[in-house]
Amino acid sequence: MTRLPRWSALALLLLCSACNKPEPPKKEQPPAPKAEHDAEWSNAIHAPINRAKAVEPQVLDAAKQQQDAIDAQTGG
How far is CA 23 from the centre of its chain? Predict the structure, then answer.
């Protein structure tokens, strides 16, 4: 029966040592700047949006003309 408290104490000690916080990583080198990559991604993402915005007035004008033609034909 004297072994049970020893094993319990050993198990408790192991559990407590496993719960310690890990050391934070050492920062020897600063991270590489991402500005160049961000600009490329930003341009790739925004280019189609900008093209769509440039064409939007033409599309709206064509839709208006089509609606006027339909209204003229139907007498509406």
Answer: 28
Tokens standing for residue 73:
């034909």
| pLDDT at site 75 | 84
Distance CA 47, CA 32 (A): 26
* pLDDT tens profile 4-51: 677 888 888 777 776 667 777 777 877 776 666 677 888 889 999 999
Distance CA 15, CA 26 (A): 26
> What's the predicted TM-score (pTM) here?
0.41
HSE-up of 49 (CA within 13 Å, CB side)?
A: 5
| Distance from C-alpha of 76 to C-alpha of 40, rounded to nearest angstrom | 50
Contact 70, 76 (CB under 8 A): yes
Can you tell me the distance from the alpha carbon of 64 to that of 56, in angstroms, rounded to the nearest whole number?
12
